[in-house]
């Protein structure tokens, strides 16, 4: 799998990239969030993301987009890559019955991403705050955060505190920190 060298700048071809990725760079610049970036072949599995994390020196986080049975409540779960996800226990922990994976259409509608590219940066598209952000405690306590830019061909590493103290307040999302 091709993974570029690490760079700390906005891509030269930023205007040719997907709108969400363009917005990510604008917001990070506006908020003064430094980042380390790699471009890569499409990463369609957590194994491939693990290789990207090794290059960046921090693990890529697993993002899971879920909804309740009526498809009226949506959740973005951010968790460690190696942690197994159990829908039933997660539903019970949140007090939401019959939780399932949200459809690609709902993911596109609320996050502006496609399956395999769910990312916390997609909250920039959630202007009406439909999506509840759930972050595993282990992730929230780590120094570094790595995610894609809304497309699985670019990944960013930045400080978790910048996610929690700068980026999420900018998007008007308050994360719920849970111990999974």
TrEMBL record:
Any coiled-coil ranges, and where? none
User: Do you know which Pfam families this protein is assigned to?
Assistant: tRNA_edit
From which domain of life does this come?
Bacteria
Question: Start and end of every YbaK/aminoacyl-tRNA synthetase-associated domain?
Answer: 41-165
Read off the InterPro entries from this record: ProX/PRXD1 (IPR040285), YbaK/aa-tRNA-synt-asso_dom_sf (IPR036754), YbaK/aa-tRNA-synth-assoc-dom (IPR007214)
Family according to the record: Belongs to the PRORSD1 family.
Q: What is the protein name given in its UniProt record? A: Prolyl-tRNA synthetase associated domain-containing protein
């Amino acid at each position: 799998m091709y993974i570029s060298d690490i760079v700390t700048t906005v891509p030269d071809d930023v205007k040719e990239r997907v709108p969400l990725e363009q917005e990510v760079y604008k917001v990070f610049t506006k908020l003064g969030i430094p980042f380390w970036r790699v471009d890569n072949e499409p990463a369609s599995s957590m194994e491939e993301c693990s290789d990207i994390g090794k290059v960046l020196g921090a693990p890529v986080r697993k993002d899971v987009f879920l909804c309740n049975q009526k498809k009226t409540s949506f959740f973005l779960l951010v968790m460690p890559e190696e942690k197994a996800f159990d829908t039933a226990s997660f539903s019970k922990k949140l007090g939401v019955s019959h939780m399932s994976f949200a459809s690609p259409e709902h993911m596109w509608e609320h996050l502006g991403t496609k399956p395999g590219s769910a990312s916390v940066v997609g909250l920039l598209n959630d202007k009406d705050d439909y999506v509840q952000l759930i972050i595993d405690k282990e992730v929230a306590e780590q120094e570094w955060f790595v995610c894609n830019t809304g497309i699985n061909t670019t990944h960013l590493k930045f400080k978790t505190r910048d996610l929690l103290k700068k980026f999420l307040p900018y998007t008007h999302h308050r994360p719920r920190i849970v111990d999974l």
